[in-house]
Amino acid sequence: MTVSTQAPPAPARPAGDPGPGSATGPGTGLDPGELDGLRTVRARHPWRWAAGAAALVVLVQFLHGLATNPAWDWATFRLYFTADTILQAIGRTLELTAYGTVLGFALGAVVAAMRLSRSAILRTLAWAYVWVFRSIPLIVQLVFWFNLSYLYKRFGFGIPFGPTFGDFETVGVLGALGAAVLGLGLHQAAFAAEIIRGGVIAVDAGQREAAAALGIPRGRQAWRIVLPQAMRSILPAAANEVISLLKGTSVVYVMAIGELFYQAQVIYGRTGRVVPLLMVATVWYVVLTTVLSIGQYYVERYFSRGALRTPPPTPLQRLRALLRSLPARTSGGTP
């Protein structure tokens, strides 16, 4: 005796019956013809519109205050916005940012490699460096490096704990600008090391295992396989750190270095126009961070080539496409 496991054939449905899973048909109470008279109603969101209107009212009030309140003193703002002293201070701010970024990420890459090494000594030293420099506020570090010559009058080169072959005065080499660059770079390196380490460990371990199975040298694995994939995780946080460093250069005012914020302080200390000079510094910081953000967008787009077959269009490409489609839209045709 055999038992058939084949299911019995389903009964044939009458023509026009969409079946039990449809919104119409037997058991639903609706016939197909009854849907023709129904009207589609869009969902209403009254609270969403109310919140948007309230936000717009606050924004308009703020802009109205900027335009009509004489305390902002826009005449003084226009006078000093492109003054030579302010432009020179912007150059010094960019100089500090560039030096701190290069030194910070170069040293941070070394510290990150030490934290990822198999040596317990290197891992411990790298962890201690990150722990110390992330724990001490930046302004404390800057003041400390600025007064380093008080602790060490001279520095020398030679055999450790033995004779020296040459020495030099600390105050003659490490001035205010050198101390600022050193403090910014060492502080930045602690954060850059963790950013780079996080990007490397975010790469799937199977990538390295496959590269090792193919006999690719470790250096080539890191440079051609791991690093390009890690950059997609490193770049957003790294760009955020560079922008923070740009704004953090304002802390070096304690060392009387003529960067943007310090120069604005000098001018409003002489003229008494505090608010317009603070607005000068504020607007320039916004402009500089905007330029850095645009650069971040294009760098991230470049390193996303391996993850996206067709990268999304850039804002400039979208604008060009919109301008090309305007004649067709105005003539009533389809773009």
What does this 3D model show about the protein?
By secondary structure, the protein is mainly alpha-helical. The chain is 66% helix and 3% strand. It has 13 helices and 2 strands, in the order ααααααββααααααα. The protein has helices spanning 46-68, 74-81, 84-116, 120-135, 138-146, 148-151, 170-173, 176-201, 205-213, 218-248, 260-271, 274-303, 315-330, and strands at residues 154-158, 164-169. The chain has a two-stranded antiparallel ribbon with strand order 1-2. Helix 9 runs antiparallel to helix 10 (218-248). The longest helix has 33 residues, at 84-116. It is flat and about 100 Å long.
The proportion of residues in beta strands is under 5%
Largest sheet: 2 strands, antiparallel
Give the mean pLDDT: 81
Report, as a whole number of angstroms, the end-to-end distance. Answer: 70 Å
Count of DSSP H/I helices: 13
Output the radius of gyration: 32 Å
Arrangement of strands in the largest sheet:
1-2
Task: Give the helix/strand class.
Answer: mainly alpha
Label the overall shape: flat
Tell me how many strands there are.
2
Helical content stands at 55-70%
Low-confidence stretches: 1-5
Helix and strand element order: HHHHHHEEHHHHHHH
Features:
mainly alpha, 335 residues, two-stranded antiparallel ribbon, 13 helices
How does the SSE layout of this entry go?
Blueprint: H1 46-68, H2 74-81, H3 84-116, H4 120-135, H5 138-146, H6 148-151, E1 154-158, E2 164-169, H7 170-173, H8 176-201, H9 205-213, H10 218-248, H11 260-271, H12 274-303, H13 315-330
Antiparallel strand pairs: 1-2
Helix pairs in contact: 2-12, 3-4, 3-8, 3-11, 4-8, 5-8, 8-10, 9-10, 10-12, 11-12
